[in-house]
Design a protein that fits this description.
The chain folds into two domains: 156 residues, no CATH class; 126 residues, Histidine kinase-like ATPase, C-terminal domain (Heat Shock Protein 90). The chain is built from eight helices and seven strands, in the order H-H-H-H-H-E-H-E-E-H-E-E-H-E-E. This is Signal transduction histidine kinase internal region domain-containing protein.
Length: 332
């Protein structure tokens, strides 16, 4: 809270205290008897009570005590110091000026009023201090969580790149022996795709329209290698291309389909991408390869970890009725 607003609150509180005291002491039917300087002296005491409370709050360390015990110590210590000092000062001034008869009842009443004043101001000040402290802790926690999230995403992205590179260099190696001209074209396409990865590897999300274009380019590489054995069909459901997706997510999904399913140019396998309002679904008929390399499932594992880190959602994998589907969350 800005200091000006805090002082304004204390001054309004002082006015209310003076008004309430005047209402109690003024006989019925008479005008309110208010001393014009009274709000100033009450305001001064409020400022002293607040300053003393916060000073003792920072002097008394919490240590191993609970927050409740720590606040209780601060409250009672500051109340005792404030009440004793201010009461002694007021009584001394009244004695010197001679405006008030000093007796035991007056001393007890003055001490009680100062203790009550501090109880109100001290509680208000400690409550505000605790709220400020809690907000600061929440801000620090949020920054740590964001730093951890960024670190996790960057680590996962570093795992995707060599995975992608390894698979496509194997394709290129085979094409160089089979058809050097086609290998050169493949290398040009691969360079464009890898440039996309380098440009977006530091981002958590990319526009879906960019990712769909990237997926189509990737399918061109796939068809070069497998002679059109796999086709890609994009359907626009309830979603829009303005949504955002994890970079290279569609490439990983397509790569997973090609890795596990057999297809040929005579009997191509269709991969369908369906854009929904808050997710994207990649489906294909199951045609599991009879012989396939051992799968560590590292691609989908990393993709799932990224979705959990960024969207706090997991990917959904489903196999039923001879079809495989992979659902990925979208940022909308």
């Amino acid at each position: 809270m800005p200091k000006a607003i805090n002082y304004l609150v204390l001054f309004v509180f002082s006015l209310l205290i003076v008004l309430y005291a005047a209402l109690l002491t003024t006989p019925k039917g008479q005008n309110l008897n208010i001393h014009l300087d009274a709000p100033f002296w009450i305001f001064l005491q409020c400022v002293i009570a607040q300053w003393l409370t916060l000073k003792i709050y920072h002097v008394i360390k919490q240590g191993n005590s609970s927050i409740t015990m720590h606040i209780a110590k601060v409250f009672f210590a500051s109340n005792l110091v404030f009440s004793s000092l201010v009461t002694a000062l007021v009584l001394a001034l009244e004695t010197v000026i001679g405006i008030q008869k000093i007796d035991t009842m007056h001393m007890i009443a003055t001490l009680g009023m100062n203790a009550l004043l501090h109880a109100l101001i001290g509680a208000y000040s400690l409550a505000f201090e605790l709220v400020t402290r809690l907000q600061g802790q929440q801000l620090i926690l949020a920054k740590k969580e964001k730093a951890l999230l960024d670190s996790q995403v960057k680590t996962l992205q570093q795992h995707i790149d060599p995975h992608f590179l390894f698979n496509n260099l194997n394709v290129l190696s085979a094409l160089i022996v089979k058809d050097p001209d086609e290998a050169e074209e493949y290398l040009a396409q691969f360079s464009d795709i890898y440039r996309y990865i380098l440009e977006h590897k530091s981002k958590n999300l990319v526009p879906l329209s960019h990712e769909l274009a990237f997926a189509n380019h990737y399918m061109a590489l796939i068809n070069t290698r497998f002679n059109g054995a796999y086709t890609l069909n994009v359907t626009q459901g309830e979603g829009r291309n303005t949504a955002e997706i994890i970079p290279c997510a569609l490439q990983l999904a397509i790569e997973n389909v090609v890795k596990h399913n057999a297809a040929s140019s005579d009997n191509p396998l269709e991969i369908t991408i369906d854009i929904q309002s808050d997710c994207i679904v990649i489906t294909n008929p199951l045609r599991l390869k009879e012989f396939k390399a051992h799968s560590s499932k590292i691609g989908l594992t990393h993709l799932n970890a990224q979705c959990q880190a960024i969207f706090n959602q997991s990917i959904l994998v489903d196999e039923r009725n001879g079809c495989f589907s992979l659902t990925l969350p979208l940022g909308v």
